[in-house]
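Training component of the fellowship. As part of building independent skills, the fellow (R.M.) carried out the full modelling exercise for a liganded target. The chosen ligand was xanthosine-5'-monophosphate. The inputs are recorded below so that the supervisory panel can assess the work.
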Amino acid sequence: MHSRHSEWILILDYGSQFTQLIARRLRELHIYCEIHPFNVDLTEVSQPTPGGVILSGGPMSVNDDEAPHLQKEIFDWDVPVLGVCYGLQLLAHTEIPGSVEKAEKREYGRANLLIDNSEDLLKDIPNKSVVWMSHGDHIHELPESYEIIGHTANAKVAAVRHKENHIYGVQFHPEVAHTDHGKQLLQNFAYDICGLKGDWTSKSFIDEQVRAIREKVGTDKVLCALSGGVDSTVVATLLHKALGDQLQCMFVDNGLLRRNEFENVMHLYTRDLHLPVRGVDASDLFLERLHGISDPEEKRKIIGNTFIDVFEKEIDHDSDFKYLAQGTLYPDVIESVSFKGPSATIKSHHNVGGLPEKMKLDLIEPVRELFKDEVREVGKELGIPEHFIGRHPFPGPGLGIRVLGDLSKERLDLLREADHIFIEELEKQNLYDEVWQALAVLLPVQSVGVMGDERTYEFTVALRAVTSVDGMTADWAHLPYEFLAHVSNRIINEIKGINRVVYDVSSKPPATIEWE
Ligand code: XMP
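Fellow's submitted model of the complex:
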């Protein structure tokens, strides 16, 4: 399914680590945009024709043999083009091969932009504002068809425009936060130069998706696996709005959920959101299959396969489902299409991978163009309660990957209690929203303690709380000592079987957020 907003910008990716940020900044300006690899088949991105094209930065030199090239056919669309860093060099190189060369001094970091012409791209940007540079090559010979509109002390060509066509380029990165007026520059490009209105909002997104879902699905039936998380809940609510009874949701208790999670979430789904959801208690089956398993990837595999088995058994075979709805997000999509290729699998995060093939279902992924915070905005617009929208991420394999070593019901129960105390205290002391994710891990070691006059030999719980933007990198949260002391006391006093609590002070990388 592809239902593009009618006004949009195409971002061609040349591999820069900042490409996603261009999309983020444009979306903040309510401009719909998509990132595609530089060599995308242009027929895939020409309906409707984009209102503008941005060529991203990239790690290579345009003079390298293997350097990614420019598809000149984009100029046939006759829409404005903005080249950023590598993108700019590519524009120059395409016109005059050899016009880009290695700079004597590589330029990384801050520079002051001196403006030579503030008519269009650099409108409303103060002179000498800070811009962020990151390049080893520079343009030593600017094609005659271009003129310089901005420079810095080290870069004679920092911003240019074509003398006749709406083609622009900047050597610095307007998309990074360190470039003071970068957003203004992108706004000038999108609003003034491309003439876009900036009318892409959660509400317009919902209206468009509802229309597109109806068109795609027709009178067929859609199955949606709910996880209790924000993404799948937003997807189900959106589908329900579009399809009503043609949607059937399923929420499986795999025995690896938090305390009272199954009841609480079922309550939200049925009473607050009126979703057609079937709750299935499959905890015995999951726990039986997982008993004694200690290898993390094996746990994930068993959990994923058991989900599929439960689904197959539970769905009403007469009802003939044609589609499976999933809460795939934009970062997953970009990761898999980028020309750099998918990054190495560190942990397999696909909880029900294999289900669509096995059940011969087509996928429907209505939020695959959104970032996490945009999904949250859409969720709010759909009337999902705020406290639910703000929940921390929770992995599909749940507490199964937080009981380290052998899994058993007893160990899961110990962890469930510790997790409950930790999260409850974070909420009580208004720290829950300060951290991106918080969790407790049950370690497979016992150690000696003393309680009253008695020697104990019990388990250790590790607490972990992190700050992060997207979960890709994270730092340990600097929670107050008093708070940690209080949580530790409660866990040790209230849970028989735990006599030691430690706090995880590792960042990601090199550690990961979960312990398994
Ligand atoms: P890591 O541990 O890789 O976690 O730093 C990053 C984020 O992903 C979540 N996570 C998972 N989510 N299935 C999921 O749905 C998984 O197997 C899985 N493993 C990790 C983790 O909770 C964190 O938010």
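The panel noted the following from the submitted structure. The CA atoms of residues 227 and 251 lie 6 Å apart. The pocket of xanthosine-5'-monophosphate is lined by residues 300, 347, 349, 351, 393, 395-397, 437, 471, 508, 512-514 (CB under 6 Å).
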